[in-house]
Amino acid sequence: xxxxxxxxxxxxxxLAALPLAAPAQDLLIRNAWVHTxxxxxTLERADVLVRDGRIAAVGTGLAAxxxxxxxxxxxxxxxxxxxxxxxxxVEEVSLEPATVDNASxxxxxxxMPPEPRPEFDVTLSFNxxxxxxxxxxxxxxxxxxxxPGAVSGQAVVAGQGAVARLDGRADAIxxxxxxxxxxxxxxxxxxxxxxxxEQAAREAKPPPQMRDGDFRLLTPAGREALAxxxxxxxxxxxxxxxxxxxxxxxxxxxxxxxxxxxxxxxAWQVAGPLAQAKVPVILDPLVDLPDSFDQIxxxxxxAARLHAVGVRIAFTNLNDGTHNARKVRQAAGVAVAxxxxxxxxxxxxxxxxxxxxxxGAQFGRIAPGYVADLVLWSGDPLEVTSVAEQVxxxxxxxxxxxxxxxxxxxYRPVTR
Amino acid sequence: xxxxxxxxxxxAAWAAGAQAAPDPFKSTYQPAASTPTLIxxxxxxxxxxxxxxxADVLMRDGKIAAVGTGLAAxxxxxxDAQxxxxxxxxxxxxxxxxxxxSPGVNAHQDGNEATDPVTAGVWAEHGVWPQDPGFxxxxxxxxxxxxxxxxxxxxxxxxxxxxxxxxxxxMQDMKFPGAPHGLKMACGENPKRVYxxxxxxxxxxxxxxxxxxxxxxxxxxxRRQWExxxxxxxxxxxxQKDGKASRRKRDGDLKPPIEPRRDLRLETLxxxxxxxxxxxxxxxxxxxxxxxxxxxxxxGFKVAAFHHGVEAYKxxxxxxxxxxxxxxxxxxxxxxxxxxxxxxxxxxxxxxxANGCAIVHSDSAExxxxxxxxxxxxxxRGRQAGLDIPPERAIRWITSNAARSLGIADQVGTLxxxxxxxxxxxxxxxxxxxxxxxxxxxxxALRYDRAAPATQPESDFLLGQPAGGAL
Lengths: 416, 471
What we know:
The complex is a heterodimer. Chain A is built from eleven helices and 16 strands. Chain A is of the alpha/beta class. Chain A folds into two domains: about 1-80 and about 365-415, Urease, subunit C, domain 1 (Roll); about 80-365, Metal-dependent hydrolases (TIM Barrel). In chain B, a hairpin with a 5-residue loop joins strand 1 (about 35-45) and strand 2 (about 50-60).
């Protein structure tokens, strides 16, 4: 603990030398309604002490000891929210290709090897200064998965992504969260997609399975990348249909990957096997219509049903997950209106995604030792009429201004 | 007078602006049978700007009979709504349900006749699939009336249709009786992208505006042809009548005039210029909206509403002065350049000036299920910005203001006596993420009851689907 402190202090000093990073201040948030997202549950009048960017203590009557004091007056305090599977920092305006970096080169581009391209690492495009990030940060979104898209049509392996911290730091990407993204979706034969996955998996295994002159899908870099993920790495599969989820489970078992289901409109139908295999589901609680035949049976109770049998769930906005990543909070509230316990919904925005992406010991909870990514809310954190009043990342108070608040203030009408 | 002659005269009279053309696709909507119902002791937001606590709503013969406190049941079925909220049925002015139906298969892409930039002759109602499951989920969200529009691929995409949100086997079973058609127009990026991409005009915003102007100029010419025809026909008819009376032929007899060829595209545009069709324009940028207002003045039509209007807040005063509504989202943004300048406060800022007309619209099968939450977000952000927006004001954004832009404010959108009894009972204040409808009445008939799943209507498409979990 002491060593950690010292290390953090060194880091804080190093960051202080950078023009954009204010030094981590010690902080005491007093009298908050603290949603710890731990076994301690919700503490109705508690203080949270932050030292060197980490949570030092959670309790009552904590001494400030020189820390900046923020009086919460009973307002809710939560961990920073996870914005879901997004293209934050890699997409500014969706329909402007020059601002979109989230897909690997198309296979019909001259000279590019055919997909799949597991070596495509979308985080290399990440722009921490994107205005889209600021718009979401002021809504309490402090972390998000930066995921590759499959713009080039039916890329069965879209590439690698990772969680980014959303305070504008240069080293935003958290390496421990690296995840490979794959798709198993309607449009091209599912059997064909599995065939490609199997071929890729075979190539990624060491020789002698492949010999010189054999047909290959993957580049040498692709083989190396895929091999890492098959050896116990995380592979997120965008998949909705129950039958396809079973195929994903089987594929992951055959090849030693740890699957994550993204989408999962029919996941509730295979909730038992998902729970048994400890496979998490990242879903959009608002999906209740059969946008495709894969989504017949989609229901607003998907989250509640999965949670009830012990599947770990997290939330994402599948409709506009980048610009409106902030909408996951509303989606969580809707899940509560349809049977999910409130605490489970909050966990699906905080501790669960952190756990799913390998960051559960550092992010997503309000407990000693955790990174002090915190949000103080005007009211119920899942309520659409509530707003984030203050966001802290690493214990640093974030500016609550964004491009949208600038526009608002320029055009604000004279109050009636 | 023969039937053919009657129709000819009717058409001629319509073309000249005298009366609406007969609708060949007549509504067959019938209100479901209902018993008089008294909803008691609710918090009522009447859609006309009033909030009544502990109030009753009496529905009789499909109409609102009374709203007040301590109303006598007088034989009506009594619904205890203690702790509940009551609002008018919600109205979405911008939906593609039925024309972009779920499942979104190729066969269901019926919302954009993207073959020509001006397809004013197509009608959304001819693409509406009544079995779209989205109608049913929208009903569960309290939506009782909606306008289904063509998409925005074209400069002038065609006519929209206003529907009662009731289970129907045919589109006509859902069609709002007597509601005017809408005309869908589109500014900006979509038309120029769709046609520019095909090497056709428009490929720029310049081309967009030239396209609207030429179309309306053609419509003016078309209207003149019909007016001329009507004048000549009237003279001919008068002479015939006169001739019959005197029972003899004379020199200088007029020939019957030749009827101009009907043009379905121009007929629609003439309808818009004559004020019989409500003009709804997909337009994001403030500067483009200003151009469209000038265009409307040039050709003498009125803009009912700008839809999407991500920058409407920049010209909120002007919109209010001209009596033009802004049909807007709470938080959509950034998916294209013209949607880059969004603010949360757009709806509240458009609502703020005297005579401001803000509408929350969906353009989405998901959003239409939660118009109340979209309004709640906008209300909250408006309040944060210092505006005084109580729930009884915000509810207008999804009821009476929407009705106004559709030209049906005399029939729906408020709980005033005599209006259609479209009523939603909410389990709590509707401006909450946790709010759900308990009951939805359309024309006084209970069409959705959350407590009785077996009675909830369902699309044919979802029947017998094992994955639905029902078998």
